[in-house]
Amino acid sequence: MKKSALQIARAAYQPKLPKALKGSLKIQEGAPTQSVADQDAIAKLFPNTYGMPVLSFIESNEVKNYPAINAGVILSGGQAPGGHNVIAGLFDGLKALNKDSRLYGFLLGPGGLVDHKYIELTQDIIDEYRNTGGFDIIGSGRTKLETEDQFDKGLQIIKELNIKALVIIGGDDSNTNACVLAEYYKKNNTGVQVIGCPKTIDGDLKNEMIETSFGFDTACKVYSEVIGNIQRDCNSAKKYWHFIKLMGRSASHIALECALQTQPNICIISEEVEAKNMSLDDVVTYIAKIVADRAAQGNNFGTVLIPEGLIEFIPAMKRLIAELNDFLAHNSNEFAMIKKSEQRNYIINHLSSENSAIYASLPEGVARQLSLDRDPHGNVQVSLIETEKLLSEMVSKKLAEWKAEGKYNGKFAAQHHFFGYEGRCAAPSNFDADYCYSLGYTAAMLIGEGKTGYMSSVRNTTKPADQWIAGGVPVTMMMNMERRHGEMKPVIQKALVKLDGAPFKHFVAQREQWAKETCYVYPGPIQYFGPTEVCDQPTETLKLEQA
Ligand code: FBP
């Protein structure tokens, strides 16, 4: 493989570890835990893994002898920068426990476990991938690991390879499944441990014990670099409004973080739209008003950040999607028989009158996305909906009406962008390189200590890495019951943007000024070498949350 100069130099980077992971360690146990909600239901569904304590690793003088351990690793779901370092940390941690330990990687996601597709990850392979972006070391996939048949098929290969523990690197849905698997393997006395690692650029797998999911830092820095570049272009030519959709399936953490880094003229936060019960027209009016006010000052240019999940947060749309989800889950066979050209009418004729009217009013492409495509976890594939175009077209229409009424006298020309995939496999920032390596190393230590049903956790992350606190959090602690595919299921509670949280409040305090004036910030590209204040900064979100 031909390597770039940066790749070659970056391979030598030694990720920083928390102090406790640098030598012998011991476990400090916290008090028994409870799930975030629905305690009785979750306790009943997870009798073997519910209520375990939070664990922290601390330094120790005691030298322990660990047996050689064979472990398996799976990358699940969307790519996120740093996945390779989780695997490198896991590998180095297992070897530190016992040099004869071995690591197997299941190929292309959870499906690799079920279909018995794997490779052994040797020192040479691991060294090729240290500090690189991507998940290509073993590939990723979105197969949902949920049936006992799948668990049993997995167990066959686990036994064949003498694997003692499985590490699942994934988002909220994948870690939910990891927890179900841990419970199943424990209930059946298989002796197989399951450990999760918090991954997703979306930043929505976080709570009081998981400060951030890995990949969020790098992805936001990549998007902020290009938003900054666009803003400089925009401020130079002064003739376009740029509508920029940002990835993040549900929560608006990415949009908010990028806004904090770049100070755009407008940033929509889906959670606020929902809380204020705004309609699509309200969102359009809000944007159009700022465009018109800037035009009155002679500024016919600006930037709008739009979270990709917006559509699902507009209350009327949310009600429509909820009914559609239930309807499609219960009538999937009949629906599959309907001709493609008839599907839209079929849905219009079967929904309640309010939802039917909203559905019928949507542009063809948006309607098709809402009704047809779901990922294996039942999510609407919002990254395929062109919300940035939908909004700019509606803003343009509204401005034309205002012009006719004499309320607006500017020029409106729009450019559209979607930043998503280009941020998911970037070479991890120093923060993600260190954080991921520490998460993987921690997972190895949890395995060494015989734990199962835990998520690897590294806290105190706004401090230097030396002071980070490594340990484990019971996955059941993060769970609640939610309606999925028309049924109540135990799932890890998704962390949405908190409207009373410091990052959002900080944004609100400044957004009027950013809308009126031109206060753009240009963060520039991620720096891997140089002074700490340039290379090692965590996200603004993390800094504000931990302040
Ligand atoms: P994960 O939750 O699996 O990390 O994936 C997140 C994400 O990148 C979303 O931001 C985006 O909506 C989605 O994946 C896109 O999925 P796909 O890669 O299947 O197109």
UniProtKB/TrEMBL annotation:
<keyword id="KW-0460">Magnesium</keyword>
<dbReference type="InterPro" id="IPR035966">
    <property type="entry name" value="PKF_sf"/>
</dbReference>
<keyword id="KW-0963">Cytoplasm</keyword>
<dbReference type="Pfam" id="PF00365">
    <property type="entry name" value="PFK"/>
</dbReference>
<feature type="binding site">
    <location>
        <position position="172"/>
    </location>
    <ligand>
        <name>Mg(2+)</name>
    </ligand>
</feature>
<feature type="binding site" description="in other chain">
    <location>
        <begin position="200"/>
        <end position="202"/>
    </location>
    <ligand>
        <name>substrate</name>
    </ligand>
</feature>
<dbReference type="GO" id="GO:0009749">
    <property type="term" value="P:response to glucose"/>
</dbReference>
<feature type="active site" description="Proton acceptor">
    <location>
        <position position="202"/>
    </location>
</feature>
<feature type="binding site">
    <location>
        <begin position="239"/>
        <end position="240"/>
    </location>
    <ligand>
        <name>substrate</name>
    </ligand>
</feature>
<comment type="subunit">
    <text>Homodimer.</text>
</comment>
<dbReference type="GO" id="GO:0047334">
    <property type="term" value="F:diphosphate-fructose-6-phosphate 1-phosphotransferase activity"/>
</dbReference>
<keyword id="KW-0808">Transferase</keyword>
<protein>
    <recommendedName>
        <fullName>Pyrophosphate--fructose 6-phosphate 1-phosphotransferase</fullName>
        <ecNumber>2.7.1.90</ecNumber>
    </recommendedName>
</protein>
<dbReference type="InterPro" id="IPR011183">
    <property type="entry name" value="PfpB_PPi_PFK"/>
</dbReference>
<keyword id="KW-0479">Metal-binding</keyword>
<dbReference type="GO" id="GO:0005829">
    <property type="term" value="C:cytosol"/>
</dbReference>
<feature type="binding site" description="in other chain">
    <location>
        <begin position="421"/>
        <end position="424"/>
    </location>
    <ligand>
        <name>substrate</name>
    </ligand>
</feature>
<keyword id="KW-0324">Glycolysis</keyword>
<dbReference type="GO" id="GO:0005524">
    <property type="term" value="F:ATP binding"/>
</dbReference>
<comment type="pathway">
    <text>Carbohydrate degradation; glycolysis; D-glyceraldehyde 3-phosphate and glycerone phosphate from D-glucose: step 3/4.</text>
</comment>
<feature type="binding site" description="in other chain">
    <location>
        <position position="308"/>
    </location>
    <ligand>
        <name>substrate</name>
    </ligand>
</feature>
<dbReference type="InterPro" id="IPR022953">
    <property type="entry name" value="ATP_PFK"/>
</dbReference>
<dbReference type="GO" id="GO:0006002">
    <property type="term" value="P:fructose 6-phosphate metabolic process"/>
</dbReference>
<comment type="function">
    <text>Catalyzes the phosphorylation of D-fructose 6-phosphate, the first committing step of glycolysis. Uses inorganic phosphate (PPi) as phosphoryl donor instead of ATP like common ATP-dependent phosphofructokinases (ATP-PFKs), which renders the reaction reversible, and can thus function both in glycolysis and gluconeogenesis. Consistently, PPi-PFK can replace the enzymes of both the forward (ATP-PFK) and reverse (fructose-bisphosphatase (FBPase)) reactions.</text>
</comment>
<feature type="binding site" description="in other chain">
    <location>
        <begin position="247"/>
        <end position="249"/>
    </location>
    <ligand>
        <name>substrate</name>
    </ligand>
</feature>
<comment type="similarity">
    <text>Belongs to the phosphofructokinase type A (PFKA) family. PPi-dependent PFK group II subfamily. Clade 'Long' sub-subfamily.</text>
</comment>
<keyword id="KW-0418">Kinase</keyword>
<feature type="site" description="Important for catalytic activity and substrate specificity; stabilizes the transition state when the phosphoryl donor is PPi; prevents ATP from binding by mimicking the alpha-phosphate group of ATP">
    <location>
        <position position="173"/>
    </location>
</feature>
<feature type="domain" description="Phosphofructokinase">
    <location>
        <begin position="71"/>
        <end position="350"/>
    </location>
</feature>
<dbReference type="InterPro" id="IPR000023">
    <property type="entry name" value="Phosphofructokinase_dom"/>
</dbReference>
<dbReference type="GO" id="GO:0046872">
    <property type="term" value="F:metal ion binding"/>
</dbReference>
<dbReference type="GO" id="GO:0003872">
    <property type="term" value="F:6-phosphofructokinase activity"/>
</dbReference>
<feature type="site" description="Important for catalytic activity; stabilizes the transition state when the phosphoryl donor is PPi">
    <location>
        <position position="199"/>
    </location>
</feature>
<feature type="binding site">
    <location>
        <position position="78"/>
    </location>
    <ligand>
        <name>diphosphate</name>
    </ligand>
</feature>
